[in-house]
Every structure is written in structure tokens, then in C-alpha cells.
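Checklist before submission:
- one chain only
- standard amino acids only
- sequence pasted in full

Submission:
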Amino acid sequence: MLTLQTAARPRTTGRIGLALAGGGPLGAFYELGALQALAECVEGFDPCDLYAYAGVSSGSMLAAGLANGLTPVDIGRITISNDAGHDPAHPALFMKPAFGEYARRLARLPRLALEALAQYARAPLSQGLAEVLAPLAAAMPAGILDSAPFERYLRRLYESGGRTNDFRRLRRRLFVVATNFNTGEAARFGEPGLDHVPISRAVQASTALPGLYPPVEIDGATYADGALLRTMHASVVLEAGADLLFGINPLVPFDASEDTQGAHEIELTRHGLPVVLGQTFRALIRSRMQVGVAAYHDRFPRAEIVLLEPDRGDRRMFFANVFRYADRRRLVDHAFDSTRRDLRRRARELAPVLSRHGLALDRKALADPSRSFHAALERQRRADRKVAHNLTAALDRLERLLA
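Returned file contents:
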């Protein structure tokens, strides 16, 4: 589903921005497929050479990679095919229990128990069981999983291969948005005052979903998932001066009545609590995003926006299991195909908007049925093998000449 917001008097300085919303692993793989479709089907759109990037939650990891020169295919080879030449990003990287957090909380239990007993002793007849046990809630961990291994992985990735883990050394503008947990306000890492924080640490904070991962402490403050306040935070890119913004939001509520893959309407509650909670979360974040995007028309009257989202009746996106490799492969190709379909559907309206900003639709690429995300992966593998073969041949020839 493609939403287009145009301007009566657009500003056309060539500044193109990208805002990536959160959505966990599911969202990241959808965004990868959509980004590769844009890279192949929009002439002049280079996802690694844009004016500014903003990322929230899982979108922050992709935005940081793109700003560091990692293409969608590069990121796909790291997270999907695991043949990129450096450490693979296995799902286990995100699933390590927070043993340190458990130990710290358990160490507080004796003192908390004494406080509960003392409180009960002061008024034993006027307190219910819930009031007596309330102080013990502080012994519960702030998160069940540890995000430190993920941060260490990103640090190694960004500090190798000519990349950087320092916002100030990037050639492009990058904003990673998290939520200051103690104030409830947005923290935009990459802006002056917060640009000294390592990129990997900022991404760790932006992806720290409360309850799943403990908030991340940085310079005496604690930060959590940036999606707690807004879904996409596109305004930070528009405030930085972007004329054309591409936004990708991977999470929309599922509309069973518009199911494009099923034969009849389904009842979501039959699928249990995870599906009910997922639908609730999607509905909440999308309603907030719609309000925000609608306000951009008045706040940034000369900017234009292209927003990409899955269709409301997209069963594959809603029920995908991203921790299965097969599902990840299917999901990223599905996002690639869906984005190309949306570009074809809205080509007549989209073409003049893109033209104003020095871009154009590649009609041949849009019509080519052989294209897919994994076809792009295979092209990159073949190119790497050719480079390696040519390098080996050159070294062999040099060795013979020296001999």
C-alpha cells in the first residue's frame, strides 16, 4: 500500500530522506525487501547515499547500516543467507537471557522482603495481601532478554570494513530515536549533544522493547524503544531539510475482510493471545502514525512524502514466523514483490513527484518478472566470486613473474 503526500509548491533542492519505523524482526525483513525494490525500480535512488536517515527500533539498525554504506543486499547476506564474509546474525543473538539483570534483582530480594514485613507489622489488620506483597515487585527483572550481545555484534560490524561507529564521522546524517524512560521524551541520537554516543549503543537503546529487554543506561540516563512515542519519527528528517521523504512502516493492523490470500473472512481471536496482542499493538501504532503524517502537511508544506506499508489484508505479513529461515526468505521476497506492485499501481501519480526530485521509475525493472530479493543476493554472490577469481588469477600471475 503506497500513500502519496504532495505539495502545492514543493522544494526541490535534491535532499532525499528515509525514515524507517520499528516492527521487530518482522518489520526489518519487510523493510529490506521494500528498500531493495526501491533501489532497483527507482532510477537515482541509492539507499546508501541519501541526505538523511531516521530509524526507530528495528528500523534504526537498518538506517545505521545504510548510512554506513551497507546495501539492503549486504544486510540481507548478514541476516538471511549468512554468507557475507563476517559474523552471521543468528536469531540466538537476540535471545540470550538477561542473567545479570536476574542476579541484580535477586540480590535485592532479602532487603525488599524485610521492608514488606516491616510494613505489614506496622498495620497488620488494615492491609490486604496485594499491599503486603507490593514492595516485592521491585525484585522482578526489567527485561527477560539481554541486548548486550546484539550491541557488541553491531559494534564489530560498524568498526570494520571502512565503516564507523561514530555519528560524527558519517558522510550522511543519521538519527537513531529512542525514548528517555525517566522523562518520557524522545532522544534523537545523532543530534548535537547526543552525537558522541556510539551508533551501536544508540541502536541498542532504540530497540530495547520494555518487558523484553531492560532499558539501556547511557550517560546516567536510561533509554528504551523509540516506538513508545511515535512509530516512524519522520519529522526529524523533514526538520533536517529533506524535500522528499520515503517512509516505510511495516506494521499495520490486519483486516480479515480484505484478506488477499484467504478464501473467507477469519476470526483473529481463534489464534490466541499472541495474535490478539499483535493486532492491538499494530492498531495503536498505526493510528498514531496516521495522525503524525497528516500533521506533516501543515508543518512541512513544501516537503513531499512517499509512504510504503503492507496491505491491510496481507496474511503473509501478519502470520509470518521470522525466526524460521524459510519464512524470512519468503517474507523479504514478498515485501519486494508487494512494493514493486504498489509502484506499478501508482506509477502515473508517482512519476511527476519523483521527477521533481531527480528520480524516475524504471519501467523495465518494474515489469521484469525474474526480479526478486534473492535474485539480487545471487547476483552479488556471483560478482564476489568473479572478483575473487580475478584476484586469485592476478596474484598467481604476479607470483610467476616474480619467480
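Reviewer check: The chain has a mean pLDDT of 83.
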